[in-house]
């Protein structure tokens, strides 16, 4: 988690981890700061615009989650850990759920429009099929034409990758392809 400023060589480490959570208006990551950018390029740029949480969450894709504050950051960590095994030789945690795996969701009939040119939000479908309608999206702000994240089906953790017709008609581009491949 990036809860404060990070500059120089130390920013390479978070970028190579599985998940990065940054706190908005607090966490920053950049190799070279705004002063050097101004000296070398003659351009003024703020810490947040250069390497803030929203920049890394929506443009570079380095941040998988952007939290509003430290408490939300800890909530993201807890939620993420609930989907992951303790190590690579274990299975992800399975939970008992009251959600019937054979339930019918009659709202699904209305999600996909009859007109094939009309977009729809793939997240509506995902939320309908996962246990308790709880989908934990990863990289929500980055390359929204592909949706990635975790859910559960019959208590078992599943990873979900899906094109999202609501953005760029779900077409794959470089960012969305990298997002899906990294997940």
TrEMBL record:
InterPro entries in the record: AccD/PCCB, AcCoA_carboxyl_beta, ClpP/crotonase-like_dom_sf, COA_CT_C, COA_CT_N
Molecular-function GO terms, alphabetical: propionyl-CoA carboxylase activity
One Pfam family linked to the record: Carboxyl_trans
Domain named CoA carboxyltransferase C-terminal: residues: 100-183
Domain CoA carboxyltransferase N-terminal: 1-96
Transmembrane spans: none
Database matches in PANTHER family: PROPIONYL-COA CARBOXYLASE BETA CHAIN, PROPIONYL-COA CARBOXYLASE BETA CHAIN, MITOCHONDRIAL
Record protein name field: Acetyl-CoA carboxylase
Organism lineage string: Archaea, Thermoproteota, environmental samples
């Amino acid at each position: 988690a990036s809860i404060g400023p990070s500059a120089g060589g130390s920013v390479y480490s978070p970028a190579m981890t599985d998940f990065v959570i940054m706190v908005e208006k607090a966490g920053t990551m950049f190799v070279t700061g705004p002063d050097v950018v101004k000296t070398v390029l003659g351009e003024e740029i703020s810490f947040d615009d250069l390497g803030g949480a929203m920049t890394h969450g929506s443009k570079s894709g380095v941040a998988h989650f952007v939290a509003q504050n430290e408490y939300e950051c800890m909530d993201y960590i807890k939620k993420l850990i609930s989907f992951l095994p303790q190590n690579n030789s274990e299975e992800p945690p399975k939970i008992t759920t009251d959600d019937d795996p054979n339930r019918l969701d009659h709202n699904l009939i209305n999600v996909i429009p009859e007109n094939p040119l009309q977009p729809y939000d793939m997240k509506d479908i995902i939320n309908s099929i996962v246990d308790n309608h709880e989908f934990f999206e990863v990289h929500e702000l980055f390359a929204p034409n592909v949706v990635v994240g975790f859910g559960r089906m019959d208590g078992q953790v599943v990873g979900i990758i899906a094109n999202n017709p609501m953005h760029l008609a779900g077409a794959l581009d470089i960012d969305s392809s990298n997002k899906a491949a990294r997940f």
